[in-house]
Design brief:
mainly alpha
Length: about 200
Amino acid sequence: MAGRFGKLTKIPPEPAAKLLAQGNVTLETRLEAPASASVEAVLDELDAKDAHVDLLRLLSVALPPRERVWWACLAARDIVGTGVENETPCLLAAEAWVFRPSDENRNTAIDSMDHADKNDVTTHCAMAVMYCDGTLGTGDMAQMPAPPGASSIAAFAMNVEAISTRRDDFDSYIQEVIDRAADIGRGGNGKRKTMKEGA
């Protein structure tokens, strides 16, 4: 049976250190794994050390763009709710891009940030879409590089926002967010029970 982070078929085979460097992300945890260690190996080590924030950081850079944005959208849904009446323009546009990652939908996500309420945390989802391919957008903006790791940082921030809203089930929810990312990394939809809780 595969471990908690086994069979992450959606995640690139490059060493975790390379993906972290490309995303301009530094882990706070001192690793024993070599620089050549896979994402799975580093996730296992971080999990064993209960380094939850670093787990989220690594998952945010390891997940491909669509999967990363979907992970952020699920966190946003945990905050705003599942009903149509709770959709924000940023969240709706980001979800639309996940299901159909076209330039048109990307532009809609980018435009949604201009009209978002200043307290709308779901802008993180639209921002993850905006920077999805490492550029500032489509058309002429596609020639301009985005800040390194900007899409990953936005997805990470969205999940941290969701975690910060949980008081009664803070610890179990962190595990849910981590397992959700792992499930997405295996090609799932992120809507499964938490392995850490014995599911």
